[in-house]
Design a protein that fits this description.
The chain is α/β, with parallel strands linked by helices. The structure holds GDP-alpha-D-glucose. Residues 43-46, 48-49, 179-180, 249, 285, 287, 320, 322, 363-364, 366, 369, 386-391, 394 line the site of GDP-alpha-D-glucose (GDG).
Length: 738
């Protein structure tokens, strides 16, 4: 027993970094017999996977022990024993398990995320319990976690926990891994609580999925449901950047590959050899679950025996079905159907010396399972949906002599890596039937070639690599997060800046307008400065020796109308024009002949993109897509830029991507040039530059190091500080003048 736990909780006393794993279930089962606490391993992909995780961290585990203590004494006894092993048990009542685990987790999320829409069951009580239990996990986690710890939350039962934890321990490194598929937006959007789940997940610094597809679906849901700023695999949420990536979970390769060297396993293999003789064996191993495609598989085997009678008496299917969730109705129904189907097949085909399906409705000890992996000629792994599927990998790893055939569903995450398997659509009975036939007649050389290639892949991408990659990137993401956090201007910093502002002799204020001093409006003409902003700017202008400059992408007619006070220096169209006294001066040399050709290209895109439009400026043409569906906008943006590259290089024009815009403009005009012109005018001893857009980066770049550069929204490498929105900018500036 002690050996089992020391293998889970190998700690390195030299490095003290603490890793707290939080999962619904602990990697062990607890029971009480004769007043003593007893532990045993628990089955399931996650427990099996993390069980063999070795790392340099001091590891702690928080989770449900899988039982209900009879009284407080028992609870305390379990707690004591588990605490000594760095395990914090979360005790839940049977009602909580019924509503949170069997309910929201397994009757709502599980079916929906596995594309079993019709099985999805709603009950407001489920959601209440899900929230309540996530909070209970929070309470237990914060009892042991501190801000220097790494907290790694596992799976769909705890999707609210990252957000809850983030509020309690804002600087902790929080990671989340989803072991099941993340469904397409079209399915996910059905959930009434979709927004809360997404926001809960976004409390993490890093969210991991098994495959790129799940990751893509998640990002698409975030885009569409929360309308957040997403850049490739980074999502900007609540002043933080959340990283999203795929980490295909692996297995303990050596454990399975070398298992055949164990005496206990050889004993079983010999026993099977005696029993099955020359019969070919097809193996299938799953938890009892409708997502695993057990019935389809049986139908395919039935059809195989029917259509290839020459294989009767020569091949048997060994089917291990591990009992699971037997309190959920759908699972009870499935069990009955599986029993009936197997009974029917065996009744139809078996003879005195041959049984077509050997059925075990129980979990087998590791030795026996491993012996079967070694003995079976074929593994038939055909889930209708599966996050990853570790059984497929374990079978391949176990084939030390290189023979064997893996038939694998294209709906399992594992298919991405196991491309040398015989790929089948698990809904296509005919295809599975033919795959069984092809597997049975596959020459040994081909088997070896395929198995060897797959072994190479899964040997490398093993469980340790999975955990190390995830944790390494979580730490990196956390470090980057710290850097960004340092840039956020605190109220202390504002007081200090205010003092500097008032002590200065010559002040230069360089402000962008949209998104910096005012919010974005769907119709750009409606983003007029309001009275409060006008008052603020007026007060700033009245501070002696202060030059207030607005450098905007807007055309000069609009700026003139919005800011008639001549004391404000205005740069329009990113500096293509500037106002001097009453005059607008052109700051570039090219003509406007280029516009017709470019307009045609813009028009083509607009016709196909509802909600987008063109803004025609003197020095530029702008395509706006703020109101367009984000995926469509992304596609059209790419198409537009592709079509612009050649004409723009021919006409010597610049293509620029901004905040929900693509702009084509004359060259040698940018906000950096405006800022440089202003720098030359005086010996400024207080320079404040604020902007939210990529075009403002040019301004930040040219300013001296001591300038106070502030990026609004997502922090930028070129700006020293950041503020989350225009509201905070206004708050800070108001502070300066009070
Ligand atoms: C979830 C996702 C994802 C099974 N029967 C016995 C036994 N097992 C072990 C296997 C394997 C594990 O249980 C099953 O793992 P899977 O990956 O196939 O499936 P889930 O339990 O549904 O796991 C899944 C996984 O999380 C990891 O992220 O791959 O997609 O649904 O390791 O060996 N072990 C023993 N006896 C059995 O009878 N000893």
């Amino acid at each position: 027993m002690q050996a089992f736990f020391s293998s889970i909780f190998k700690t390195n006393i030299l490095k003290k970094k603490r890793l707290i794993i939080v999962s619904n279930r602990l990697p062990l089962k607890v029971s009480i017999a004769n007043g003593a606490v007893a532990f045993s391993k628990s089955e399931g992909g996650l427990a099996t996977g993390l069980d063999s995780l070795y790392s340099d961290y001091e590891k702690h585990w928080v989770g449900w022990p899988g039982m209900y203590p009879d009284n407080d004494e028992q609870k305390e006894l379990i707690q004591k024993e588990l605490h000594a092993l760095h395990i914090t048990p979360v005790f839940l009542t049977s009602e909580q398990i019924q509503l949170f685990y069997e309910g929201y987790s397994n009757s709502t999320i599980w079916p929906l995320f596995h594309y079993f829409f019709a099985y999805t069951h709603y009950n407001p009580k489920y959601w209440d319990a899900y929230q309540a239990v996530n909070r209970i996990f929070l309470e237990h986690t914060i009892l042991i976690a501190s801000e220097d710890d790494i907290i790694w939350i596992q799976d769909y039962q705890l999707m609210l926990l990252p957000g809850l934890l983030r509020k309690e321990i804002p600087t902790a490194r929080i990671g989340f891994f989803l072991h099941i598929p993340f469904p397409s937006y079209e399915l996910f959007r059905i959930l009434p609580e979709r927004e809360f789940l997404l926001k809960g997940l976004l409390g993490a610094d890093l969210i991991g999925f098994h495959t790129i597809d799940y990751m893509r679906h998640f990002i698409s849901s975030v885009y569409r449901i929360l309308d957040l700023d997403c850049k490739i695999n980074h999502i900007y949420f609540d002043k933080r950047v959340v990283n999203i990536d795929s980490y295909p979970m692996g297995i303990n390769y050596d454990l399975f590959h070398n298992a055949i060297e164990r005496k206990g396993i050889v004993k079983y293999i010999n026993r099977y050899r005696r029993q099955f003789g020359n019969h070919k064996i097809i193996l299938s191993v799953d938890r009892l679950d409708y997502s695993k495609g057990i019935l389809h598989r049986l139908r395919a085997f039935d059809s195989f025996l029917n259509d290839y009678p020459e294989f009767r008496s020569k091949v048997s299917l060994v089917m291990i079905v591990v009992p699971s969730r037997d309190n959920v109705e759908k699972y009870q129904d499935l069990k009955i159907k599986v029993d009936e189907t197997i009974g029917a097949i065996n009744g139809r085909y078996s003879d005195m010396t041959w049984v077509p399906v050997y059925y075990f409705y129980r979990g087998l000890p590791f030795e026996q399972l491993s012996a079967l992996y070694n003995y079976a000629d074929i593994a038939l792994v055909t889930p209708l949906r599966d996050g990853m599927n570790l059984v497929a990998k374990e079978y391949v790893a176990s084939r030390q002599n290189g023979t064997g055939v893996l038939i694998l569903s294209e709906m399992a995450g594992a298919i991405v890596e196991l491309i040398e398997s015989l790929k089948v659509n698990p809904n296509n009975i005919e295809e599975i039937k033919i795959a069984i036939y092809n597997a049975l007649i596959m020459p040994v050389e081909e088997q070896r070639e395929r198995i060897e290639k797959m072994q190479k892949v899964i040997k490398k991408q093993n469980i340790n690599k999975w955990a190390t990659d995830f944790l390494g990137e979580l730490e990196l993401a956390g470090n980057k997060q710290d850097e960004l956090m340092k840039k956020i201007i605190t109220s202390d910093k504002i007081s200090q800046l205010k003092t500097n502002f008032h002590n200065a002799q010559n002040r230069l204020l360089l402000f962008d307008y949209d998104g910096t001093l005012a919010p974005f409006a769907n119709d750009p003409l409606k983003a007029t400065p309001n009275e409060a902003l006008n008052k603020l700017l007026h007060k700033l202008m009245l501070v002696p020796n202060t030059s207030l400059v607005i450098i905007s992408g807007r055309d000069y007619t609009t700026l003139e109308q919005w800011f008639p006070e001549k004391a404000i220096k205005l740069y329009a169209e990113h500096g293509a024009f500037f106002r001097e006294n009453d005059l607008w001066i052109k700051n570039f040399t090219s003509d406007e002949l280029w516009k017709d050709e470019i307009l045609l290209l813009f028009q083509k895109i607009i016709d196909k993109t509802p909600g987008s439009f063109i803004e025609v400026k003197n020095s530029a043409l702008v395509w706006h897509y703020r109101k367009t569906d984000s995926w469509l906008a992304e596609l059209r943006e790419k198409q537009l830029i592709e079509s612009l590259v050649y004409p723009c290089s021919k006409l010597n024009l610049q293509i620029m991507r901004g905040s929900k815009i693509v702009e084509v403009k004359v060259p040698n005009v940018n906000k950096g040039i405006c800022a440089q012109q202003m720098l030359k005018l005086k010996n400024w001893d207080f320079i404040l530059s604020i902007g939210d857009d990529t075009t403002d980066e040019d301004m930040f770049k040219v300013l001296p190091e001591e300038a106070i550069t502030i990026k609004v929204g997502r922090a930028s490498e070129n700006a020293r500080y950041s503020l989350s929105s225009y509201k905070e900018v206004l708050k800070m500036l108001n502070e300066f003048i009070t």
